[in-house]
Amino acid sequence: MRMSDLPSLEVSLTVAAPPERVWALVSDVTRVGDWGAECVAAKWVDGADGPAVGARFLGHQVRQDREWETTSVVIESEPGVSFAWAVEDPAYPAASWRYQLDSDGSGRTVVRYRAVMGPGLSGLTARIAEVPAIEERIIADRLKEHDRNMMMTLQAIKRAAEQG
Questions:
Q1: Cβ–Cβ < 8 Å for 86, 73
Q2: Residue from 107, 14, 118, 126 nearest 68 by CA
Q3: What is the pLDDT of residue 57?
Q4: Taking a C-beta distance cutoff of 8 angstroms, is the pair 95, 122 a contact?
Q5: How many beta carbons lie within 10 A of that of residue 55, not counting itself?
Q6: Residue 69 belongs to what H/E stretch?
Q7: How many domains does the chain contain in total?
Q8: pLDDT of residue 37
Q9: CATH label of the domain that carries residue 107
Q10: How far apart are CA 23 and CA 99, in angstroms?
Q11: Residue 94: pLDDT above 80?
Q12: Neighbours of 120 (CB within 10 A)
């Protein structure tokens, strides 16, 4: 797989809570530090104070020995249904992320969490430019990391949602 293929990954988990409760958690970017994984903090910026399309937030990431910040833009925000954002330029994002929530009809919610890398530039594309011969391995390793981090995030959200 190459970056031009827009590598993506989706993980899912069923949560014993209604979609509205889960949505309130996944759309509150100020709580990302509660979920663990790579993005350890976020805050609304430019006057935004909640999850509306066009709202921007600053995320603080930590990975191995690196720390960096990104600005993201909310590209989808439907209470109880979905929440998505693009990293950096929404027209040419470094990555895009999305939560999709579906009721299973019994008061539980199936949460699907999706990441798409590219097509814009990122730390990953910079690393590939340094060693293009191993692009596929770099992408595969990053997808494994994302899989682990995304499941950790969903498990933390599940715990919070089920505690009420």
A1: yes
A2: 126
A3: 98
A4: yes
A5: 20
A6: strand 66-78
A7: 1
A8: 83
A9: 3.30.530.20
A10: 8
A11: yes
A12: 18
